[in-house]
Please model this.
Amino acid sequence: MPRFVAFLRALNVGGHGVVKMEALKKHFTAMGFSEVESFIASGNVVFSSKSARGLDGKIAAALERALGYPVATFVRTDAEVAAAAAHAPFAEKDVAACLTYLVGFLSKELDAASLSRVKALETDADRFHVRGRDFWWLSKHPQSKPAISGRALEKALGQPTTLRNVNTIRRMAERYGGRKEIS
Model:
């Protein structure tokens, strides 16, 4: 059965209270998913589903009903996660010189205007690379003190996003593989 990862945006921030990972796993099981696991207790849920159709919307709607607030949801196959982990859009020397290296997940590919707005955010300290529904952000600023706010980034993107450290995505890919036949 195909394996997926749901990346949930701002699950335990914003004054909504803490959602325990065990409770989150129960919500996913109640939605009919199997082999449900959380990964590092930060809004990453790995699960199996017979169908890939409409997973983002189905999960977001069910979580809003269960939790009482919207939870933006970005679903990728395990193969897509493995591909994001393997993608290296920046030179190793540039990565070594930076403090923050993130992967961002989107619901849809950027249009030309959004891509132009993201590129306009680039400086010597902040660089972006976009591929499909994912983007990479390399920054010389610590993640706790970004020069570009989440609000400014989402305004440029023209849609919500959620960000994960590249090392988290790599660990996830190592753990869950990435069955090529699912992509």
About this structure: The two ends are 13 Å apart (CA to CA).
